[in-house]
Predict the 3D structure of the following.
Amino acid sequence: MSISRTELLQAFDGLLQPERFKDYGPNGLQVEGKAEVTRIVSGVTASLALIDAAIAAGADAVFVHHGLFWRGQDGRVTGWMKQRLQRLLGHDINLFAYHLPLDAHPQWGNNAQLGRVLGFSADAQFGEQALGCIGAAAFSGVPALAEHVSQLLGRPATWVAPDGPAQRPVRRVAWCTGGAQGYFESAIAAGADVFITGEISEPQAHLARESGVGFIAAGHHATERYGAPAVAAQVAAQFGLEHQFIEIPNPA
């Protein structure tokens, strides 16, 4: 089975509704390739390694969370940008990228899928553009939750417990994938006992200790590796297309 590039773009746009979001770069078709698509490769980031793996897999389209173009970047096609574009254009591969819309989809997005993996169900949203999720949990404290997260995501988490007793029970957990450490104060205001995201910056450690709310940084890549394959698999199944998720390891 195959569908046109235009039909595939309409399917992704219809599912993810990028027009709803104020984002850091263009969502949708970033690089135009073949007019007909039979095989989709999904991945987290449009790196050279992913593009080369997609070429080896015979992909007509690559679907990612982190595309090639971001607001404020150098617009010259040199170095790494030339290499990535050269591979895509030389093999006539379409590149589809969705950033915040892929984080936010209530069923197939990064936040929903991270919740599924960790066993959490969101009952409310919070933060800018309502990207953050919050729901019920039952853990003895931040250390127990951090161990749970580390085991399920397959990498050690960085965590900070509040000052005072380390085993304060966790009954409400908030999460937002990737580099969402700036959502910590919104998570606190939403009533979280712990906030889970991908990265931690210097201020969050102090805020966790002083606010009584724990903070867990589980890895940018590790928290955002579930949405792209979920969306691509859903659309591929809808049209009878082939789909393969290719993992490019990233310690960040």
